[in-house]
Amino acid sequence: MKNVLVPTLLVVITLMAYNQATSQQAASSRAQSRAESMDKSAAATYEHLATAIIAIEQTEDELVKSILLGYHAAAQGHLKAAVADEANRREHLEAAATEVSNIANEGDKRIQAVRQRLAKAGHTHNTDVVTKEDFMFVNSKEKKDLLALAKRVGQMGDGAKTADVKAAQEELATVFDKAVAPE
Questions:
Q1: How far apart, in Å, are the Cα atoms of 38 and each of 31, 32, 49, 125, 183?
Q2: Per-position DSSP letters for 11-41, written without gaps between them
Q3: What is the per-residue pLDDT for 135?
Q4: How many structural domains comprise the chain?
Q5: CA–CA gap between residue 169 and residue 179 (Å, rounded)
Q6: What's the rounded Cα separation, in Å, for the pair 68 and 174?
Q7: CA angle 172, 108, 104 (to 5 degrees)
């Protein structure tokens, strides 16, 4: 009986060890499968997030561009009115200068407040190499040119010559088109 018992015990112990090893492999395989599934899910979610962020940034670009287009249209409208309406020329020129300044700064005070809030949260766009300022469309050279133009337009006054106002219109169109042109 001893002779039969020892081999039987060896077979039973071997089968138990084999069973335990097999169940550990199955558990390990299930855990690995779950880990791979989680990794795939995380990657897919991150991909969707990246797509959303890119879409939001493109939306912001288009929104700011439309705001700048509005300032440009208003500035050109005031410059045109300054040519046609001598009695209110100064007011039109001053209003045009304000709109040109808004273009240079990529927004009026309300828009600037939003941009500052976004910057504080870490949201930036393009950094100007020279000034280290954040900008979306108008770089530091264009900003300098636009601010100089705004100053000239604002100082033209009642006695502004039609040719000078028209030259300002053309200069504004040139600088603006360059600033908002696709890169």
A1: 10, 10, 16, 33, 39
A2: HHHHHHHHHHHHHHHHHHHHHHHHHHHHHHH
A3: 80
A4: 1
A5: 15
A6: 14
A7: 30
Q: Report residue 55 as tokens.
A: 């879409």
- Identity of the amino acid at 52: A
106 versus 6: which is more confidently predicted? 106
Q: Residue 180 in contact with residue 65, Cβ under 8 Å?
A: yes
Per residue in 71-114, pLDDT (tens digit) is 999 999 999 999 999 899 999 999 999 999 999 999 999 999 98
If you average pLDDT over every residue of the chain, what do you get?
84
Average pLDDT of the residues in 149-162: 94
Residue 146 belongs to domain spanning: 2-180
Which of left, alpha, beta for 124 (phi over 0: left; psi -120 to 50: alpha)? Answer: beta
Q: What is the DSSP letter of 137?
A: S
Token pair, residue 49, equals: 């997030």
Kindly report the length of the chain: 183
Whole-prediction pTM: 0.76
- 27 phi and psi angles, rounded to 5 deg: -65, -40
d(CA 128, CA 112): 17
